[in-house]
Amino acid sequence: MSAERLLWAIGDPDATSAELVDNYREPRQVAPPVWRVGAAEAQRWPVFHPSEADPAGGYRRQPYMIIFELGDAPEAAYLLRLHYLIIAPRYGYVAVTVNGVTGRLYLRPAPALGTEIRVPAALHTSLYADGVAELAIPGGLLQQGENCIALVACDEEPVTQFDNPEKIARLDRMATGAGFVYRALQLWATAAGDGTLRRVDVVPTVLYRADKAGALWETCYLHAELNGPLPAGRWQLALAG
Q1: How does residue 2 score in pLDDT terms, banded at 50, 70 and 90?
Q2: 72, 83, 90: which is closest to 183 by C-alpha?
Q3: Nearest to 83 by CA among 182, 180, 166, 1
Q4: Three-state secondary-structure class, residue 165
């Protein structure tokens, strides 16, 4: 199979969707969802996914779950595609658990090129960036019948917590929010990738450090996307030129 085939979608990357409920200012006004693909009744998906660094979210990790059926045997591979916005001052990564097996989806936002503000709260934020993140899912992780994918926004950096609800209520929401905003979430059936590495990027930054001789060295990040599990080991990167 060479072409991608859409299995299900939540939201719409090209337009504001009625399925997405704006909960940025009050993340706990909508409970973490269990979305059942194909359900007859209307469902709501919170537009904002707080991490454990978010005060208004209760300083806890919150799983957002999707339950769906496969009528036939699984395809060779699948692709989970997340269209997202960053309006909170801090964000981390997304832990994705597929039928009990967990991987990590890293967000790499860039300044938004469009002029449309999709989330009302973003009118008052100093950061508005978007991106599309993809996670390859080996077909062997899915099964004919019911399947479950759970997403959790994770931070893992040091967090200063306030245990007094009144203090949390007085915090500046636009300065303390932590997490990301959904534009759309899609699952595609696709061809299996070649090899373990799906994509490797060396990403430069604007950060430099000085060595003992006083020379400046630019900090870069190695971003690797995998087609499947990678055994423990050591990587060596050689850059020509």
Answers
A1: low
A2: 83
A3: 182
A4: helix
In whole angstroms, how far apart are CA 117 and each of 8, 75, 92, 121? 25, 37, 22, 9
| Contact of 156 with 51, CB cutoff 8 Å | no
pLDDT band for position 32 (cuts 50, 70, 90): very high
Q: Which residues of 71-98 are buried (b: 16+ CB within 10 A; e: fewer)?
A: eeebbebbbbbbbbbbbbebbbbbbbbb
pLDDT at residue 128 in the model: 82
Contact 163, 212 (CB under 8 A): no
**Is 179:88 a contact under the CB 8 Å cutoff?**
yes
Percent of the chain with pLDDT over 70: 95
The phi, psi pair for 226, rounded to 5°, reads -110, 150
DSSP string, 188-201: EEEPPPSSSEEEEE
Higher pLDDT, 221 or 66: 66
CB 200 within 8 A of CB 224: yes
Token pair of 34 as six digits = 């269990």
